[in-house]
Structures are given as structure tokens and as C-alpha cells.
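Example for tutorial group B:
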């Protein structure tokens, strides 16, 4: 077909790096009345804003000029590769770049360009095909404009030609072929040859039958959408011979069907549609065909829905995703009939959990102080028992460490914090006695009791002075103002660790904190994307109406604004995280952690002196001392430990994530370098310290983990 004739549909494309093309373009532009559209600068700007930034071969690709003779217009556009990258960028990641490339090799043939016009448009908009064949013998009439995305200027022009023109205006590089005579018994074989998918939207039952016979012979899947209650049919002739129309018409003769009148074809159409399933208005209308209606009705909105449905089917077929032969419905009316109010998200702000009443008995106050200690995920792994003049602290019988709590090292740190709180309360109430941390080898099974404190009549002025700050201490995840620590504050934190025999290192400065922010954000990303780590992390979260709000992390304390809380709802969905894991994306999952660290005044690493449980218990005592000191200085403190903090070798890292243990190992080395970790020390806890607004909500505590015996 002549491209510049009245029935042409193919634009001319001129490349700026080909002199002969530019000479032809100059000749064309000399013709009077030609409209020139040059918005290339906007396109280049959009291309440069694509993430990740395109390679130079795309940025430097020579532009093209596209001549649309039916509009007497020439448009300057990006070259074919950069054009595709930018035009389909907003489709990611509904369709990934790799999937776009694969779908770019799919050839689809559409027969019937009433419903088929919307199908073709949806396919090209989604970028789910690489070549299209369009067949229809009918010209556009005024009565078609209730459902075709055409216009009055297209009246009398072949439907397939108009469709091809509109698609070429969307993508001038898309290979298109047009069959303006439609397809019939003589041409169906040629039309189907080389297709990956056939879309049947024609009105002729005899052509439908012949199409299926040819598709079955060539093992090509066939799709049909019928614009009433969103009826969609998929016939997988590529994987199973099948029976045309799912066997609903039995054995039928295309030639006999072709000879029937429109009214005589209605029984066959009803057998296909299922008279009991079509809409009441369609059923009533069919009874009026050749009475008060010339033919059955179709709505443009339902036709557009059909285009979207077929595009989804083609996407699955083209990507080799699971899809059965069969029939289904995308019924908008049924959806509207089933409208209901959404469930209450349960994120309503709540009041602080009131602290338990304190007894006048000093031992009760010691037990209460121990219960106020921090622990990973507010899991409260301890068992604290007072009786017979002794306080005993150990791992609770029913406590099970999480995957990141390797060898229960984080739990031992929590026990040390509880012991430190008990010492402070005992000193304040003058019942402090000897404290003993029980030594044992790292490989020994856990003992019920790991530390003891005798009740006596002693005190310690330094510890006693910390009592009020200890009770007020809490986790504050609010963003900081980024102001640095003073020399006096830094010295006070070091002194707080040293008075308990601990060692810390402090990272400050915007550049070093930014590096640490990237590291910790990537650790969070891996935690979200690793199913077991994610499951344990999500199990720690509590909403205000949770029954077990006395453990775990109250979501109101996460320091999130409204937008971040909304995004959390997405980040809690396993299907979303599994999809990001499959793509190895999800870099926004660590965004909140990264932002919080960048806004900090410092990161404080607390070290354990060795691998034994007692080493981590003592490190927990030092960590709590540092935390209380920071609180007394008016600083906000938040644990910021990465998932690999307690891993010591590749075996530990593999247990965390078989897929990403290599990445975890690199992050671990980076953390060692960031804090210049001495070879003889191990990380016990990482604390984020900042100047931030106070946190109003305090974590509640379980009452069954602390007990007093006579």
C-alpha cells in the first residue's frame, strides 16, 4: 500500500545521521502546509531523568524525523532504542525491562478492529508486543464512533488502516502490517503464519471457526474478548489440541455458518455466551434484534475494558507465565454491586500504656527496673527472679532466639541491660550486693541462670544517681537535626562505658554517617527481602489494638510520618516483597533507616570482649550505661544494629540468607572498617544517637518475665 496515499498507514522515518535522509527531509519541509513538531529537547531531558541513568549509547543515539502524511506533519523524536526506553519507562515495574525485551519479540494478529482497535491500542501502550497484524474489511461509519477511538475525519476509511495510523502515531518504530480486505478462508493460513498469538474480535462466526482451526493446526494460542460482563476466552492450542470454543458449538461447518442471517446466528452466539450468564440488558437487547435494534449493542467503556483484559492475557502468554485454557469474566457491574467500606486499618493513634504501679518494696522496684531494659524487638528474653536474698537473671524457658540473634548473643546483651537496671535500682534503694556473671564456654548449652545479684545493704553513688534517668530511658526513632556531639558529650559516653568495663567507638561527621547510612539501609533491604528475616521482623510489630501490645514494637514508636506509615502497609505485604526480591530491587526499603542515620549526631558501637555469653552480658551492661547516659544528656537513642551484627563466619551468614550471604559478608567488612573494629573485640550493639523531639509513647512490658518468691 502506498504510504502517502489516501489509504496509507506507514510513516516515513528519516535518520539525522544519514545524509540522504536529511536531503529527503529538506525536500519534504519545502512543501507548503507541512507542520513541523520539534520537542526533542523535552524528550532528551526526560531520558536523562530516567532511573537508573541510561548508558551513553542511548543518550547519544541520533534522533529521527517522522513524517505522517495523513496529517501532513513531521515530528522529531528520539532514536528507536532511546525512544522505547523513555516511552515504556513508566510501565516499569509492572512490566520489567527484561520482560519488555522479551515481549518485544512477540507477534500478535488481531482480526476485527472494533473491539480489536482497543486491544491493539492497549498492547502498544503496554509495550507487550513487537509486531502487529491488523485485519478488518469494514470502513469506519458514524455508528462505530460509540466504541472506536477514531474521529469524524476517519469516516469512510478502513478500520484497520485507521488503527494502524493511530498506533504509528504512538510508536513510529513498531512493525505493522494491515489486511484491509480482512481475512477469509483463502487468506487465514497466510495471516496466522508466523504469529505467536491470535486475537479474535471479528463478528463473523464462520471466520471465528476457521481462525480456530488454523490456530489449532499451527499450535498458536487464541484469545477472544466479548464485551458483555467482561467475558474472556483463552484457547491454548499451543499446549493442547483442545476443541474450538471449548466444545460449546460441537462440530460445526464454517460454510453453513456463513450462509446464515444475523438472526439465524443468534442461537450459536447464545450457545457461545451462555444465555444464563449474559447481562439482563444484553439478553433483552438480543430479543429486539431486527425488531427495534439493527444489531446487538456494545459500549465503548466495555470495549476498552476488553482491550485491557486481552493485553493482560497477551502479556502472560508472551512471558510464558501460567495461564490455562478456559473462560472467565472481568465483571465491572458485579464489582460495583459488591462495594463495601474498607476495613479499619487499625492504625489509630493511642495513648501511652501507663507504667505498672510501683510497690514501696525495694525488691519490687528492682524487678520493675529490670523489666524496663531494652531488648531486640522488645522481645524481653529474660527470666528475672528475686527470692532468698538473691536476684537471678537468665533466658526465659519459652524464649526462642530469632535468626539474627545468632547463638542468642543479642539476648545475652539484653540480659546484661536488665542486670544493669537492677543494679542501679538496688543502689538507689540501698540493697545492692555482690554481682556475678556466670562464665561458660560458647558451645555449652544455655543455663537457666546467667547472672546473680545478692541483696544486701550496700549502695553505689554513681549507679544510684542514674535511677531516674534509667526509668525514663526509652527508644526514640524520631529524625534528628544532624548537629554534632560536643566534646563533653562524647567524653561522657566513653566514661559511661568504661565505668562498666566496656569499650565503645563513635562515628561522627556527615560523610562517615552517610556511608554508614548506606550500609544499614542495605542491611534493612536484605532483611525485608529474605523471607525468614522478614517474617521475624514483621512478627515484632504491634498495633495499638493488638492483644499482645506488652511485647514487640509499637508501630506508633517507629518515628514515621503519614506517608511513611502508608508505605509501611505495602512493605508488610509478602507478595510485594517477594516480587522485589525476584527483581533484586527494593532499595527504598532501607530509605527510612538511611534517612534516620544521616540525621544523627553519631553512631555508637558497643563491643564485647570475647565470644562467650558472659562477654555479651557484660557488654549489655555497658550498653545500657551508655544509653542511660545519652538519655540524661537529652539525646535520643535508637538501636541500629544490622542483621549480621552477631555473625562470626560464613556459616552464620549463610544461615541468615543463602541467597545474599555474600552481600552480607561485604557489608560486615565495611562495618568493621567504619568503626575500625579491633580484632579481639566483637560488636554487641550499635546505637544511633541524635538530637530529636521526645518520643511520647513508651513500650509496654510483660508481667510474667519478672517474679518474686518469698
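The residue assignment follows.
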Amino acid at each position: 500500500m502506498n504510504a502517502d496515499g489516501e489509504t496509507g498507514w506507514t510513516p516515513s522515518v528519516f535518520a539525522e545521521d544519514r545524509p540522504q535522509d536529511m536531503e529527503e527531509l529538506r525536500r519534504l519541509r519545502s512543501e507548503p502546509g507541512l507542520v513541523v513538531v520539534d520537542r526533542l529537547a523535552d524528550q532528551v531531558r526526560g531520558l536523562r531523568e530516567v532511573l537508573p541513568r541510561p548508558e551513553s549509547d542511548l543518550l547519544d543515539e541520533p534522533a529521527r524525523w517522522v513524517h505522517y502524511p495523513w496529517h501532513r506533519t513531521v515530528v522529531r523524536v528520539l532514536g528507536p532504542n532511546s525512544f522505547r526506553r523513555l516511552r515504556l519507562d513508566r510501565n516499569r515495574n509492572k512490566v520489567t525491562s527484561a520482560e519488555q525485551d522479551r515481549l518485544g519479540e512477540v507477534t500478535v494478529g488481531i482480526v476485527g478492529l472494533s473491539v480489536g482497535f482497543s486491544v491493539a491500542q492497549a498492547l502498544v501502550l503496554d509495550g507487550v508486543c513487537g509486531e502487529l497484524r491488523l485485519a478488518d474489511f469494514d470502513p469506519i461509519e458514524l455508528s462505530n464512533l460509540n466504541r472506536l477511538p477514531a474521529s469524524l475525519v476517519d469516516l469512510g476509511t478502513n478500520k484497520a488502516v485507521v488503527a494502524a495510523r493511530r498506533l504509528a502515531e504512538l510508536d513510529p518504530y513498531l512493525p505493522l502490517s494491515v489486511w484491509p480486505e480482512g481475512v477469509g478462508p483463502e487468506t487465514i493460513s497466510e495471516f496466522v503464519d508466523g504469529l505467536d498469538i491470535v486475537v479474535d474480535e471479528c463478528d463473523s462466526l464462520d471466520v471465528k471457526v476457521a481462525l480456530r482451526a488454523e490456530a489449532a493446526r499451527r499450535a498458536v494460542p487464541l484469545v477472544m474478548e466479548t464485551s458483555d460482563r467482561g467475558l474472556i476466552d483463552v484457547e491454548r492450542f499451543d499446549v493442547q489440541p483442545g476443541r474450538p470454543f471449548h466444545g460449546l458449538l460441537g462440530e460445526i461447518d464454517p460454510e453453513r455458518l456463513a450462509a446464515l442471517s444475523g438472526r439465524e446466528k443468534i442461537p450459536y452466539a447464545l450457545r457461545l455466551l451462555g444465555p444464563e450468564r449474559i447481562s439482563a440488558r444484553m439478553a433483552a437487547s438480543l430479543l429486539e434484534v431486527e425488531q427495534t435494534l439493527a444489531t446487538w449493542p456494545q459500549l465503548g467503556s466495555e470495549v476498552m475494558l476488553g482491550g485491557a483484559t486481552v493485553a493482560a492475557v497477551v502479556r502472560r502468554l508472551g512471558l510464558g507465565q501460567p495461564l490455562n485454557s478456559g473462560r472467565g469474566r472481568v465483571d465491572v457491574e458485579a464489582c460495583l454491586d459488591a462495594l463495601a467500606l474498607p476495613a479499619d486499618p487499625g492504625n489509630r493513634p493511642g495513648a501511652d500504656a501507663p507504667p505498672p504501679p510501683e510497690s514501696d518494696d525495694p525488691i519490687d522496684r528492682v524487678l520493675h527496673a529490670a523489666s524496663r531494659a531494652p531488648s531486640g524487638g522488645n522481645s524481653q528474653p529474660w527470666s528475672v527472679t528475686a527470692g532468698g536474698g538473691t536476684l537471678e537473671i537468665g533466658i526465659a524457658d519459652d524464649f526462642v532466639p530469632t535468626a539474627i540473634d545468632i547463638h542468642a548473643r543479642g539476648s545475652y546483651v539484653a540480659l546484661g541491660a536488665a542486670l544493669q537496671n537492677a543494679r542501679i535500682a538496688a543502689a538507689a534503694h540501698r540493697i545492692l550486693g555482690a554481682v556475678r556473671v556466670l562464665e561458660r564456654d560458647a558451645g555449652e548449652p544455655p543455663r537457666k541462670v546467667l547472672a546473680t545479684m545478692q541483696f544486701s545493704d550496700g549502695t553505689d553513688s554513681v549507679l544510684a544517681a542514674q535511677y531516674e534517668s534509667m526509668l525514663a530511658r526509652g527508644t526514640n526513632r524520631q529524625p534528628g537535626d544532624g548537629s554534632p556531639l560536643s566534646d563533653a558529650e562524647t567524653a561522657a559516653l566513653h566514661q559511661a562505658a568504661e565505668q562498666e568495663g566496656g569499650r565503645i567507638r563513635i562515628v561522627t561527621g556527615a560523610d562517615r554517617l552517610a556511608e554508614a547510612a548506606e550500609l544499614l539501609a542495605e542491611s534493612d533491604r536484605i532483611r525485608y527481602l529474605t523471607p525468614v528475616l522478614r517474617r521475624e521482623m514483621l512478627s515484632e510489630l504491634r498495633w495499638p489494638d493488638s492483644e499482645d501490645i506488652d511485647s514487640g514494637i509499637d508501630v506508633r514508636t517507629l518515628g514515621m510520618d503519614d506517608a511513611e506509615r502508608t508505605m509501611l502497609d505495602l512493605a508488610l505485604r509478602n507478595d510485594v516483597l517477594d516480587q522485589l526480591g525476584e527483581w533484586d530491587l527494593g532499595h527504598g526499603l532501607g530509605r527510612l533507616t538511611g534517612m534516620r542515620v544521616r540525621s544523627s549526631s553519631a553512631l555508637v558501637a558497643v563491643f564485647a570482649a570475647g565470644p562467650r555469653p558472659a562477654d555479651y552480658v557484660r557488654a549489655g551492661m555497658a550498653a545500657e550505661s551508655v544509653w542511660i547516659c545519652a538519655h540524661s544528656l537529652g539525646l535520643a537513642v535508637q538501636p541500629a544494629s544490622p542483621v549480621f551484627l552477631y555473625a562470626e563466619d560464613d556459616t552464620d551468614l549463610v544461615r541468615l540468607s543463602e541467597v545474599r550471604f555474600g552481600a552480607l559478608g561485604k557489608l560486615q567488612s565495611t562495618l568493621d572498617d567504619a568503626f575500625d573494629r579491633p580484632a579481639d573485640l566483637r560488636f554487641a550493639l550499635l546505637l544511633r544517637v541524635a538530637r530529636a523531639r521526645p518520643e511520647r509513647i513508651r513500650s509496654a512490658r510483660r508481667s510474667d518475665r519478672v517474679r518474686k518468691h518469698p
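The mean pLDDT is 90. Compare this with the pattern of hydrophobic and polar residues in the output above.
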